[in-house]
């Protein structure tokens, strides 16, 4: 009797934002697992990043988070979906700045509205294929709700609430079947964020040393993430866990004073940390960047109290090592940039 030697059908992982930092890291990690096929979503399949993923074996597909029909088509036959939304892209885009001005709202609030709208589009489309997803098949990048975790005290940490208001709130409220298959992956401070506000992260002093300047206590422990190197490994470990859990993806946890001290030792320069006021941080952002300074200063104030994770109990890499023995994050977290 002939035996069926056909290889088992691969699981299809659909990765949103596959040419970005988080999505790219996730796509590359799962492409290393022969059990998975990866469908990489991007607005521009002809971009260098998209072509690089295609060369690695990904099926690169055009999709737009503002076009629900493109998401529904892209999610077809998915076994799992990785979701990530963008606050900072609409925040910085000139056309979005112009649209915000026409509406009479800040670019900060406008970017929040874009992120919420696009997040809901993702959730709505994913709900349409929820039945076919694996038991733990909807992995979402998110952050804590500053509004809720601060007891209503902090209502303008828009790039936190733009994520939390959809993942998990909107999904929990409107799509219970999808919610049962969801894992929430919170992300720590990106180690590349110094490039957004260099005068706050690495303020060069007159004598040549570098000073980090945030409205956060120097010993307030915060999570730090090398997103390109570590996000994929972390999500890969999350995929092996039961659904319904929330995580903090970080390579290390350290206060900003310790962080900048280690950075200085690694790079052979003198460093210091200074806790500054909210207004000081806004001023450090420089002319024309007040909205950026305000948004990040709100985040740093929230990081100080109640804390970057809002006081939530989140699982970490230590909790995941039992299911992924090679989950090694943050090995080069103070490397020079």
UniProtKB/TrEMBL annotation:
The UniProt record lists the keyword Oxidoreductase: no
Keyword NADP: yes
Keywords: NADP
Coiled coil residues, start to end: none
A GO cellular component entry from the record: nucleus
Residue span(s) of domain NmrA-like: 9-313
Protein family membership: Belongs to the NmrA-type oxidoreductase family.
Protein name as it appears in the record: NmrA-like domain-containing protein
Organism: Schizothecium vesticola
